[in-house]
Amino acid sequence: MLDGSGTIQSTTLTLRKPTREDGEAIWQLIRACKPLDENSMYCNLVQCDHFADTCVIAETPEQGVVGWVSGHMVPSDPDTIFVWQVAVSPDARGMGLGGKMLSHLINREHTKHVTRMQTTITLDNDASWALFKRFTSRMGGELTHEPHFKRNDHFGGHHDTEHMVTIQLRETGVRKAA
Ligand SMILES: CC(C)(COP(=O)(O)OP(=O)(O)OC[C@H]1O[C@@H](n2cnc3c(N)ncnc32)[C@H](O)[C@@H]1OP(=O)(O)O)[C@@H](O)C(=O)NCCC(=O)NCCS
């Protein structure tokens, strides 16, 4: 997709719903995208199988899977989509792919009614904060956050506190493109 000078070689980036056949490639991509938590391959297969409507795969003919977003509708709030993980292959970063996948995610038949996006981010993940702040300003929304899954209360000291980020989206129906 990128040559040494950062030029996009592929003209055919595809964003689509995952299928079971994508599970292993997603698992490999997540392993290459520190600091993401690695899940079991089985977890990724269930996401592809049961949550395909709220997950996004990005692929090119040359490189296969270069991007992934996993998400689900919040069971107690049908207007809110929760984004679990966003992963962009190291050599495809900085070209807006993360933002493109988030926009794609909320423009589907299944999701275009949502008024909120949520995700959790640790305070030290600069790239993730930048991605969601940029997405918020592009969509014309408002971003708030507060500690949610806490280091000692919930992770037993094994993981930094995850802040729940809530993006109140101003636009529903036809969304701004990426
Ligand atoms: C976070 C991640 C998905 C961003 O993907 P991406 O396609 O490179 O993001 P974009 O190109 O859409 O960039 C969005 C914004 O983030 C900024 N950004 C990207 N990487 C950054 C970094 N390391 N530090 C600070 N800002 C960064 C970009 O400059 C851009 O802002 P701008 O448009 O104002 O310039 C990617 O870096 C990644 O996979 N990281 C590892 C896994 C991870 O941490 N995932 C997020 C947690 S769920």
From TrEMBL:
<feature type="domain" description="N-acetyltransferase">
    <location>
        <begin position="13"/>
        <end position="162"/>
    </location>
</feature>
<dbReference type="InterPro" id="IPR012772">
    <property type="entry name" value="Ectoine_EctA"/>
</dbReference>
<dbReference type="InterPro" id="IPR000182">
    <property type="entry name" value="GNAT_dom"/>
</dbReference>
<dbReference type="InterPro" id="IPR016181">
    <property type="entry name" value="Acyl_CoA_acyltransferase"/>
</dbReference>
<comment type="function">
    <text>Catalyzes the acetylation of L-2,4-diaminobutyrate (DABA) to gamma-N-acetyl-alpha,gamma-diaminobutyric acid (ADABA) with acetyl coenzyme A.</text>
</comment>
<dbReference type="GO" id="GO:0019491">
    <property type="term" value="P:ectoine biosynthetic process"/>
</dbReference>
<dbReference type="GO" id="GO:0033816">
    <property type="term" value="F:diaminobutyrate acetyltransferase activity"/>
</dbReference>
<dbReference type="Pfam" id="PF00583">
    <property type="entry name" value="Acetyltransf_1"/>
</dbReference>
<comment type="pathway">
    <text>Amine and polyamine biosynthesis; ectoine biosynthesis; L-ectoine from L-aspartate 4-semialdehyde: step 2/3.</text>
</comment>
<keyword id="KW-0808">Transferase</keyword>
<comment type="similarity">
    <text>Belongs to the acetyltransferase family. EctA subfamily.</text>
</comment>
<keyword id="KW-0012">Acyltransferase</keyword>
<protein>
    <recommendedName>
        <fullName>L-2,4-diaminobutyric acid acetyltransferase</fullName>
        <ecNumber>2.3.1.178</ecNumber>
    </recommendedName>
</protein>
